[in-house]
Amino acid sequence: MLSVKHNEPVEFTEEMLGKFAEIVARYPEGRQKSALLPILHEVQAVYGWLSVPAMDSVAAYLNLEPIEVYEVATFYTMFFLQPPGKFVLEVCRTGPCCLVGAERIMAHIEQRLGVKEGEVTPDGLFSWRGVECMAACGYGPVLQIGPEYTFYENLTEEKIDKLIDELKNKAEGRELTAES
Amino acid sequence: MARKLLLTHIDVPGIQTFDVYRQKGGYRAVEKALKTLTPDEVVEEVKASGLRGRGGAGFPTGMKWSFLAKPEGVPRYLVCNADESEPGTFKDRYLMTHIPHALIEGMIVSSYALGANTSYIYVRGEMMPQIRILERAIAEAKNAGFLGKDILGTGYNLELYVQPGGGAYICGEETALLESLEGKRGNPRIKPPFPAVSGLYNCPTVVNNVESIAATVPIINDGGAEYAKIGVGRSTGTKLISAGGNVNKPGVYEIELGVPVEEFIYSDEYCGGIANGKRLKAVVAGGSSVPILPANLILKTLNGEPRLMTYESLADGGFQSGTMLGSGGFIAFDEDQCIVRNTWNFSRFYHHESCGQCSPCREGTGWLEKVLHNIEYGHGSSSDIDLLVNVAKNIEGNTICPLGDAAAWPVASAIRHFRDEFEWHVSHGQEAQHRNYGLAHYADPLEPVA
Fold first, then answer.
1. Helix (H) or strand (E) run with residue A90 in it
2. Residue B243 to chain A, least CA–CA distance (Å)
3. At which of A27, A55, A75 does a domain end?
4. Per the structure, how many domains does chain B have?
5. Which of A28, A98, A135 sits opposite B85 (nearest CB)?
C-alpha cells in the first residue's frame, strides 16, 4: 500500500492506468462513468482510502466533474474518506449475526485494540467498525478485511486474538502506511 | 423431497473449474439453446416452467422477459443482480463461490433469449473473492468458446462482465442497481418507465437475481414443463433457502418448494432443530423485510394447516397471520432472543441503508430506530408503541421503492405478534437495560401469556 497525505497530489502509476483502461473498455463508448466504482475500488486498494486529490485525478481520467466522483464516494459505505488503519476489521452487526454473538465479538475487538469504532490505533495498524449485513448469516459472527475482503467466519474471542496477532506479525518490518 | 437442480454437483471436487463442470454435463443448456432453439422458444420454456423471481419479489421470470421492448437498432441488456444484502440471505454468495459456472451458463442462455450481446453481473463490492471467482470462470468459458464472438459457430456474440458495487443495500433494488452500474449514487428511479423499456443506458434491460438466472439451466436442459412438475401449485421448482440464526445446522439448502416449515426446521436433512436444545420462539422466513411470525404461526396457519415452504402457504393469512417467502432468508430465533432488540437492530439497518430520496423513508426509518432504541434501553413510554405503528404506517406505500415497506413491515409485525414484549420493556425500564433477551413465553409450544 502506498502512503498519501490529505492534500498531496496523486499521480496514477502505469500499472494502475493499464487496469483503468481495461475497466473502461467494458462499457459502450461515452459510458465511461460506469467505470467509476471499479476504479475507486482500485484506487482505494492502492492507497487505503480516497483523498480529495485522488478523487480529482479519477474525475480527470474519466472526464467527469469532481463533484460526480465525490457524490458517489460519499454514498457508498465501502469507500474511506479518511485514512483508516492499515487493517480495517469490519464486523457484521446486523440481526442474524447478533443472534449468534456479533455484539460480544465487537466488544472484544474494542477492548483488545483499545480504540473505539472508527478510530485508528496509535501505531496506525488497526481500525474497526460494524458494518451492515455481509450476506453470510449462516457463518456468523463474521468479519472482513479489505482490500481483498478476506473473510473470517464463526468468530470467537480466541479467533480474534489469533487474527490480530497474525496481522501484527505480518506488518512487522514493513513501513507503516496509514496517516494519523 | 430432496431433489436438487442447482446444487446437484456441489460436492464434486473441482466443480468450480470449467473442465469439471463441463464433465458433469455443464454448458449443455447453452448448446441446446443456441443450436436448437430460437430466442423466443427459450423465453417460452422459461414461461412454461413457472419460475418466479428468486430475489424476493416472486414475479414470474418468463413474463418479465416477455415485457422486454425490442426496438430496431437499440442494444438490449441483461444485468444479473448479485448484490445480495437482504439480512438473512446468503444463497447467492454460496452459489457463486462453489458453482460459479452455473451462473455463467445461465447468463449465456438468458442473454441469448433476450437478444443481449453485452451482459453484466453486478456483485456487491464486499464479495471481492466471489468477483475474482466469477472473473476466472468467465475467462475459462471464453477460452472454451462459450463466450465472445460467434459462440459455438452459431453467430451469436456475447461479452460478460462483472461489476462491483460499493456496499449499499439499496442497490439490490433493480433501478438503483442500474444507476449504480452507470456510475452514480444508488437512488432508485421513478417507475414507469420500467427497465424493460428504459433501463441501463436508457436501453431495454432485464434485471434478474443470481438464482433465477442459474435456474434457467435445468429449465432448458429438462424443459419448462418438467420443471413445472416440481413443487406445489404456482410455487414451481426448487429454491435455495439460507438458514441462519439459532438453528443447529445453519447453511444453504436447496429444497423442493412445498417442504413443510416444521420439517425444514427440525429435520436433520435441513436445519436439524434449534441449537443448544432450546425452543423456537419466532421465525423471519424470507429475509429481514418480511413480517416476523411467532413459532405457532410459522409452523401452522391460523386455520391449523401445516405451513409449507411455498410462496402461497407462507403468505396464507395475509400480514395478519402470515408472511412471505421473499428471498428465502430463513432466520430462526430461540426462546432467549429479544424481539425488541432485534427489531431495533433491523430498524437501524434500514435507517442506515435508506438512500434518502423520499422523506417518509429518510425521516421515518430514523424515527423507528430512535424510538426502538429508547424502548430497548428502558427509556420508552407506552405511547411509543403506538407511535411506532403510526410511523410504520406512514412509511408503507409512500416511497418510490420498496425499501420503505421493507423497513415498516418488520416493526409492524413485531408489535402485532409480540406487543406485550414491547410493553414489558416499557414497564420494566431499569431491568430492560440490563437484559439482552426477551420473554420466553412465545416459544413452541405456545404457552399462555401470563
1. strand A87-92
2. 6
3. A75
4. 3
5. A135
A91: β partners? A130, A143
Higher pLDDT, A176 or B448: A176
**A contact residues 59-118, partner B, Cβ 8 Å cutoff:** 68, 71-72, 75-79, 93-96, 98-100, 103
User: What local confidence, expressed as pLDDT, does residue A178 receive?
Assistant: 45
Give rounded-to-5 percent helix, strand, coil for chain B.
45, 15, 40
In a domain, A99, yes or no: yes
What CATH code is carried by the domain that includes residue B403? Answer: 1.20.1440.230
What range defines the domain where residue B191 resides? 18-229
Q: Measure in Å the smallest separation between the Cα of B65 and chain A Cα atoms.
A: 23
Q: Please, what is the Cα angle at B243 between B237 and B244, to 5 degrees? A: 160
% of chain B surpassing 70 pLDDT: 96
Kindly state whether residues A162 and A92 are assigned to the same domain: yes
Cα(B450)–Cα(B441) distance, rounded to whole angstroms?
A: 8
In a domain, B12, yes or no: no
Q: Are residues B95 and B180 in the same domain?
A: yes
**Residues A62 and A18 placed together within one structural domain of the fold:** yes
Q: Identify whether the C-beta of residue A164 lies closer than 8 Å to the C-beta of residue A74.
A: no
On chain A, the residues whose CB falls within 8 A of the CB of B342 are 95, 98-99
For B370-388, the pLDDT digits (tens) are: 999 999 988 999 999 999 9
Give tens-digit pLDDT for A30-47. 999 999 999 999 999 999
pLDDT of residue B447: 40
Same domain for B248 and B272, yes or no, is: yes
Domain hosting residue A96, numbered range = 87-171
| Residue at which a domain ends, from B229, B264, B298 | B229
Place of cell 457463486: B96
pLDDT score for B378: 87
CA distance B229 to chain A (A): 30
Same domain, A94 and A71: no
Q: Residue B438 has which C-alpha cell? A: 426477551
ipTM of the shown complex: 0.94
Rounded Cα distance between A26 and B213, Å, is: 21
CATH code, domain carrying A62:
1.10.10
Q: Is the pLDDT of residue B1 over 60?
A: no
Q: Is the pLDDT of residue B434 over 90?
A: no
Mutate to test the interface with B, among A75, A129, A131, A148 (most CBs of B within 10 A): A75
Above 50 in pLDDT, residue B249? yes
Cβ distance B163 to A98 less than 8 Å, yes or no, reads no
